[in-house]
Structure formats: C-alpha cells, structure tokens
Write a structure and sequence with these properties.
Strands 1, 3, 4, 7, 8 and 9 form a six-stranded mixed β-sheet that branches. This protein is mainly beta and 102 residues long. The two termini are 24 Å apart. It has one helix and nine strands; from the N terminus they run ββββββαβββ. Strand 3 and strand 4 form a beta hairpin. The protein is 5% helix and 51% strand.
Length: 102
C-alpha cells in the first residue's frame, strides 16, 4: 500500500468481531519513525459499507515524508468498554506529479 503526498485518500477499516456503529471512541494514527504525524478521531470518520472511513486532507498527506515508511493503525473502544487495535499497515509514501496543495 502507498500514500501519495498531496492526495486525499479515504482509509477504510473493516471489522470481523464488532460493528462500527458500536465504537464509542477511536484514534486513527499515521506514524513515521515512531512519531504521530496524522491523528483522526471518531468525529473525523464515516461509517461506510460496514467499515469506518477516514479521509485524509492534502495537508495530512503533505505532512508525510518520502524517506520513511508510514505505519497506519486504528485504536478503538466500543460502547461496552471493549478496546482493540487494528493491524498495523506499513505504507510507502510517494510524491505526486505536483507535490503541493492546489
């Protein structure tokens, strides 16, 4: 998987054990070199096709550097107090044809 700087992709997390509408809190994180670069919360998400989607902004993707892979993950908690974490997905970060906001 790759993230292209300056684009606005939607990252969708799907679940086998829980329903997305039962999530009471979550953090979608993108890290590089152990540092949180992008952080989204439940308010930033949309339930779609049984998953939880987060659309990145141009500023989000432009904050990522191309010289280090990015790790994408979702920490979540249900209304019943069950807490979990998605798999950690490693992504390469690539430049767009025009590597800035427009």
């Amino acid at each position: 998987m790759e993230i292209i700087r300056g684009t606005t992709p939607t990252l969708i997390f799907t679940f086998k054990e829980i329903q997305p509408n039962r999530i009471s809190a979550c953090y979608m994180l993108i890290k590089q070199r152990g540092q949180i670069i992008v952080q989204k919360t439940l308010r930033d998400s949309v339930i779609s096709n049984g998953g939880l989607g987060f659309t990145l902004t141009q500023s989000d993707t432009l904050s990522l550097t191309t010289n280090s892979p990015a790790q994408v993950m979702l920490d979540w908690k249900t209304i019943d107090g069950v807490r979990g974490r998605s798999n950690i997905y490693e992504c390469s970060v690539k430049v767009a044809g025009i590597d800035n906001e427009y």
